[in-house]
Amino acid sequence: MSNQKTAIITGITGQDGGYLAKLLLSTGYRVLGAYRRGATETFEKLKEHGILEQIEMVDFDLLEFSNICRLVKKYQPDEFYNLAAQSFVAASFEEPIYTAQADGMGVFYILEAIREFSPKTRFYQASTSEMFGLVQEIPQFEKTPFYPRSPYGVAKLMAHWATTNYRESFGLYTCSGILFNHESPFRGKEFVTRKITAHFARMVVGETDKPCELGNLSAQRDWGFAGDYVECMWRMLQQNEGDTYVVATGEMHSIREFVLEAGKACGWDIEFSGKEDSEIGTDKKTGKIVVKVNPKYYRPAEVEQLLGNPAKTKQKLGWEPKVRFAELAKMMMEKDIERAEKGRL
Ligand code: NAP
Ligand code: GDP
Prior knowledge:
By secondary structure, the chain is α/β, with parallel strands linked by helices. The protein contains eleven helices and 15 strands. The longest helix is centred in the first third of the chain and has 22 residues, at 96-117. The chain is globular. The structure holds NADP nicotinamide-adenine-dinucleotide phosphate and guanosine-5'-diphosphate. Residues 10-11, 13-17, 36, 39-40, 60-63, 83-87, 102, 126, 128, 179, 181-182, 188 line the site of NADP nicotinamide-adenine-dinucleotide phosphate.
């Protein structure tokens, strides 16, 4: 087993952490799952993936430099995937300082630890299309100017440039994946797609009658499947040198369209009516209101649309997304109905 590679994955309890760990384990990696003590310690997602027993869980906090140094020094991993973050844009307006420290400074801590104790380690940083924010061109690619619209976007931009800078300054193998929104049945329930599918599933099994309350229905995103995107992260670390890559599907859809697709998988035919704050979505067959706008979910500054151009990634990494929008919505909806039926949502 001497050729076995070791990878540290931070954010192991999150959506992408589970999918990436599953992929790396299936190709023979030793996987160290870095998690913060006291948080999501039940490891539900990893259990549902059926991989918890195969992962060595290690203590990790983005804000604790000494802990990060010890971790990197002890394991000197071949690959370090930094997926940990305060990842929810809306929360970053309420917790901007924490978000900046975790998502921005935290990445400097990891890079410093690698530079000092394990310069051979290949590093992946989870960058985001939120860095494009108020988009300067459509579609966005690796050279599109950035214009973040939230403390989250600002903090991630700092981390993105730190990742590039440590590659250029110290010759480290670092990669930044500018990932557009990606979803799955393991997406956090605060994000709009999963909020919709989890709520609809509760309606389907009769747990609630209330409509799902949402904010801006006109926002558009380039939504892909997390299971496809983690494979691209791994590919980035198997090249001759580090680089920056956009990971996207090249297709854009609105929240309204996602509601329609999720509704279809529930057997509903949803029609929208009303304007702005009074807009509702009704199932034409039953007359039941399934969605309504609540301005409480509007954001102080909105990212209206994001659309990625993944041409470089396709060409250099030979990667293409497999799951498309309608299939993704159906997959998420069906899984949440299955969970709701078992009382495990
Ligand atoms: P997620 O489900 O929200 O997972 C975030 C992970 O970070 C969780 O495991 C969380 O642990 C951990 N974490 C939060 N604060 C931490 C801290 N201070 N110290 C250590 N761990 C901490 O996110 P995801 O959807 O898997 O996304 C993975 C990464 O990609 C994130 O960095 C996100 O910002 C970025 N990204 C995501 C998308 C997307 O559409 N999903 C797009 C672009 C970029 P707990 O369980 O303890 O909370
Ligand atoms: P983000 O792109 O990382 O912010 O991912 P989200 O899934 O949180 O939000 C995507 C888009 O959905 C944003 O433009 C939100 O304003 C919009 N949106 C509309 N209603 C909601 C809602 O109730 N919750 C969330 N999270 N987003 C909503």
